[in-house]
Amino acid sequence: MMYFTWFNIIVLVLIAIGLVYKSLPILETESLYDLLFSTEWFPLKGKFGLFPFIISTLWVTGISIVIAVPLCLLCAIYLSEYAPKRILQWINPFIDILAGIPSVIFGIWGIIVIVPFVSDVVAPAFGKTSTGYCILTGGIVLSIMVFPIIIHVLLDVFSTISENLRNASLSLGATKWQTVKLVVLRKAGPGIVSAVVLGLSRAFGETLAVLMVVGNVARIPHSSFDPGYPLTALLANNYGEMLSIPMYDSALLFSSLILFVIVLIFNIISRIILHRVERSVE
Amino acid sequence: MQRKFIEERIFIVIMQIATLLIVLSLVVILASILLKGLPSMSWAMVTETPQGGYYMGKGGGVLNAIVGSLYLAGGATVIAFFMSLPVVLYLNVYRKKKSKFASFTRLCLDVLWGIPSIVYGAFAFSVMTVIGLKVSLLAGTFTVALLIIPIMIRAMDEVIRTTPQGLLDASYSLGATRFETAFKVVIKQGMPGIITAILISFGRGVGDAASVMFTAGYSDYVPESLSNPVATLPLAIFFQLSTPIHEVQQRAYASALILTIIILAISLGTRFITKRYLKNKIL
């Protein structure tokens, strides 16, 4: 049984080693700075600037977090502090089901609902024209995909806060909302940060849903209504084909190494915070 | 009324709206998939494989993808189960529940759980090129298994962790070994958790596309051996949607409806089973 346990730890290490090993060729020929910050993406000429893709990824993720965090925070506070048990029992299954829906379904829904919504309603409202296949659409679809994980972690965090603290505040004459604002949210600070970071890393690595709605044009987007081309979409569209082009394979695996490293750092930070929060309760 | 009470009222309303929005988003997703998919649903979609000229709008269905997805997720779930159960038992019975090693393992599993499935796909594909494995059901199954092992372990662990220590001690005091305790007491106690974990992982396996994109390939036939490439539902949806032909796009919506129904059935099944098994659980 111990070997099975070690297996998982080893898999993690193997993925890291594999990706680093495969990206070494490109790192030897091009400087890290050029790879990360050059905007020239011409694989046939041997130019592999990943900057447009990195920017798209950051932009889409940013929008999704800006939409998701306030909504999830409000929802989680309501569910943990105010909602009667009956409502909780109704809403929990909804969140579970939302968590189980495959990304391709989110993508299709994005095409059916969000793309026309953005091109017909949102873009004209800002005085712009857009096909709807753009960064904003990707961000909206992603934000809904990260709802379940953020809410789930937030609810866990709120449940670790001792009831005594709340009672102490209430007995001093604070309203429930004041208690939430001044006691619960402060105490939950680190936990909230890690919930957001986990949501971020989810959004960061999401592939198919974003790929379907974001437009996939390898140029630096200038507004949220421009199409983008996130790293994951780049991988999904190109990896596995055209590997005869020298260095292409290595460049693509380097982009997945970037994803891996960022997600790894995000996850380790937030999980360590959460483990601490949990331990402080025990 | 005092200001603090007004503030509270306002925020309660805002919070209720936020909660409603989140619930509504799911309803809207399901409704729009249903409305778009239903008109082009037919028996042929679920009972036939693509006929000649299917991608030009001729007859056939996506049976290849449905069966492919079920094979792939089923195989991966079985592999993952046999890899996960020992780990869960080891962490909870053989090691002290809060030992450093156990929490380190949990950290690693959480990190693995967070790695995007496309990275698993890319990694698996580059391993395949090294060992000379072609895109196939076998390669896809292993990749998906790798993806769902952390999910399954953590889901089982959540429940098995709550096994009361007293129950373990009672079993030891009757002279049972750790092995007997693990398999006869802990597993029985954790049954609802184990079944939930299996179903959740299966659902994840059916729905994931990015990991099988490079590893399982695509085929218009139902696979006959492990070395055949295999179609999966999410990819079938994706490919049909990217064709310019209206008929085929309509079928993508129908395929999305099929996938949604499968996932919903798994979700509801999980709830049902958990409720039934919770009745005979000692808390």
Helix-strand layout with pairing:
The complex is a heterodimer of chains A (282) and B (283).
Chain A: H1 2-29, H2 32-37, E1 41-42, E2 47-48, H3 51-82, H4 85-100, H5 103-125, H6 135-159, H7 163-171, H8 176-187, H9 189-205, H10 208-213, H11 231-238, H12 248-281
Antiparallel strand pairs in A: 1-2
Helix pairs in contact in A: 1-12, 3-6, 3-9, 4-6, 5-6, 6-9, 7-8, 9-12, 11-12
Chain B: H1 3-37, H2 43-47, H3 63-94, H4 100-114, H5 117-131, H6 137-160, H7 165-173, H8 178-189, H9 191-207, H10 233-241, H11 246-278
Helix pairs in contact in B: 1-11, 3-6, 3-9, 3-10, 4-6, 5-6, 6-9, 7-8, 9-11, 10-11
Overview of the molecule:
Helix content of chain A is 77%, strand content 1%. In chain A, helix 5 packs across helix 6. Chain A is mainly alpha-helical and 282 residues long. In chain A, 50% of the residues are buried. Chain A has a single domain, classed as MetI-like fold (Orthogonal Bundle), CATH 1.10.3720.10. Chain A contains twelve helices and two strands. Chain A is globular, with a radius of gyration of 22 Å. The model of chain A has no long low-confidence stretch (mean pLDDT 81). A two-stranded antiparallel ribbon of chain A has the order 1-2. The N and C termini of chain B lie far apart (46 Å). Helix content of chain B is 73%, strand content 0%. Chain B is mainly alpha-helical. Chain B is globular and about 70 Å long. Chain B has two domains: 38 residues; 234 residues, Orthogonal Bundle (MetI-like fold), CATH 1.10.3720. The model of chain B has no long low-confidence stretch (mean pLDDT 82). Chain B has eleven helices and no strands. At the A-B interface, helix 1, helix 3, helix 4, helix 5 and helix 6 of A face helix 1, helix 3, helix 4, helix 5 and helix 6 of B.
